Amino acid sequence: MSNAEILEERDVEVIEGEFVTIRQSSVRAVEGGHVELQQVGALSIDGERVEVTQGAAGLLKGNEISMNQSISVVAAGNKTYLNYSLSPVVLSKEKAEANGSAVGILAAREIKAENTASVIMIGYKIEVNVTTLFDLK
């Protein structure tokens, strides 16, 4: 794949590129600088900036992760943003924001959440409107 390419309605094993845009496809692994996925199912996604809209992923890893109406098993990054999304494990080095989402374990230095359900939330600075089973501040 070249530096910037758009894939639509395809089944692909591995994609690598600086700017990757994939729509309505399934992918085993994606690696890139700026990765944008819309209605995509992927096993592993790794990028500097990852944006997923209405997608599903096993492992999301990147510097900045943005999920909108999406599902991931594990999301790990420096800054993680969830909007109406589901993720059992969210790990963020710096900041995590969740809006209208459901998370199992959410751990970050700074957490901001609105209308979000969580089992366990661990952070240094926490600003939340959430339902939790356990809360460690």
Explain this structure to me?
The chain has 137 residues and is an all-beta fold. Helix content is 0%, strand content 90%. It has no helices and 6 strands. It has strands at residues 4-8, 11-53, 56-68, 71-83, 86-99, 102-136. Strands 1-2-3-4-5-6 form a 6-stranded parallel β-sheet, with no helix packed on it. The radius of gyration is 15 Å and the shape is elongated. The mean pLDDT is 89.
Biggest sheet descriptor: 6 strands, parallel
Computed Rg: 15 Å
- Strand arrangement within the widest β-sheet reads 1-2-3-4-5-6
| Number of helical stretches of at least 4 residues | 0
Percent in helix: under 10%
SS content category: mainly beta
* Cα-to-Cα separation, first versus last residue: 45 Å
Mean pLDDT across all residues, rounded? 89
* Helix and strand pattern: EEEEEE
Please report which band the strand proportion falls in: under 5%, 5-15%, 15-25%, 25-35%, 35-45% or over 45%: over 45%
Give the overall silhouette. Answer: elongated
Low-confidence stretches: none
**Tally of DSSP β-strands:** 6
